[in-house]
Each structure stands twice: as structure tokens, then as C-alpha cells.
Amino acid sequence: NGGTPWGELGNAKNSAQQVVDENKSKLRPERTWNYVVGYRYNSAFFSGSADFYHTEYYNRLAGITSGPVNNTYSAYLNVGRETMNGADVLGTIRPFHGLEITSSFSWKDAEYKSTAVPYNGSTISLKGKHQVFYPKFMYKANVNYTYRRASFNFNTTYSSAMAMTYTNDVKVPS
Fold first, then answer.
1. Which of 49, 74, 94, 159 has the CA that lies 20 to 30 A from 7?
2. Could you tell me the CA-to-CA distances from 108 to 84, 104, 156 in Å, in that order?
3. For residue 78, what are the contacts with CB-CB under 8 A and spacing of at least 6?
4. In DSSP terms, which residues pair with 172 in a beta bridge?
5. CA distance 14 to 120
6. Is the pLDDT of residue 63 over 90?
7. Hey, which residues does 160 pair with through a beta bridge?
8. 139 touches 157 (CB < 8 A)
């Protein structure tokens, strides 16, 4: 069942069905409102795009790990509201036939807005905490050269530090 949202639920003491049944009354459908404005340009020498987006999440569902350390299980928790603002910029130049140089930059600021989220028998505040497992900044560069049937590609990616926990106390470095 790995690879599906519900595939890792449960453990030896709590079946997946028990976890679902316990959370049925707490979980409501996640909803979003998305707004995007952007621009694209394309020519033989240059292609570019830029956009800005805003997303409002309601009843945001979060995958969490629960239970004692020696017998944890995965579950979903309604973490309430989250807002996200972001922008993307991409440019590609083609100085001569066969060579493409692409560069892109993304910024995203996603914050949880809920002040009282039930977790492990207590209540925690996520207000102002950043979205987990998603960096605030990403930069990508790509150089591609094609000559007849051969091609060469070089690419690199930078991702800023990102939170690993909903309380933002553990982070993956950039």
C-alpha cells in the first residue's frame, strides 16, 4: 500500500481502519481558493515567463506521525487555515542553434494561521509557522546543447532551508 495517502496508516496496535474511524469526525474536506496572474513571452532568441499566485487553504490536511516512539503510526490532522503567496520567474536564451540556457527562480511564503490545533492530547499553535517540506526559495539553471543526434545537459538546483516539523523546530539545511 506504500505510495498512497492512506497506505501507511496504522500499526500492530491500531489498524488503518481504526485510525480512519477515529478521525472521521475531525477531518473535513480540504478546500482551496487559488489566484494567479502572469505573463509569457516567446521568440526565437528568448522565452520568458513571470507569475504571482495566492492560495487560501481551508481545513488543511497534514500528514503526521502519532503514538509512542516504539509504536508510531501515520495519521492525518486538520491543521486549519493556511495562506500561500508565491512568484515564479523563468528565462531561456538561445544564442545560436542547438544551445539553450535556462534559469528560473521561485519564491513561496506559506504560513499556517491556526492558533489551536489538537495534537497528542494537547493543543499547539501553528500560527505563523511555515509549510513543512517546501523551501521558501528555489533556483534552477540548465544548459542544454544539441548537435545532430548528440546532446549535452548540465543542470543545478538550489533550495533554501525548509521546515521538517509543523512547529518549525527542525529544518533541512539549504
1. 159
2. 7, 14, 19
3. 26, 27, 28, 59, 60, 61, 62, 117
4. 162
5. 15
6. no
7. none
8. yes
* Average pLDDT of the residues of the chain: 86
Instruction: Report pTM.
Output: 0.74
Q: What is the pLDDT of residues 45-54, one digit of tens each?
A: 999 999 999 9
In terms of phi and psi (left: phi > 0; alpha: psi -120 to 50; beta: otherwise), the region of 108 is beta
For residues 115 and 125, the answer to whether their CB atoms sit within 8 Å is yes
Q: Which three cell numbers, joined as nine digits, stand for 147?
A: 548537435
- Torsions phi, psi for 16 (to 5 deg): -60, -40
Helix (H) or strand (E) holding 150: strand 150-159
DSSP-derived pairing of the beta strands 82-93 and 99-112: antiparallel
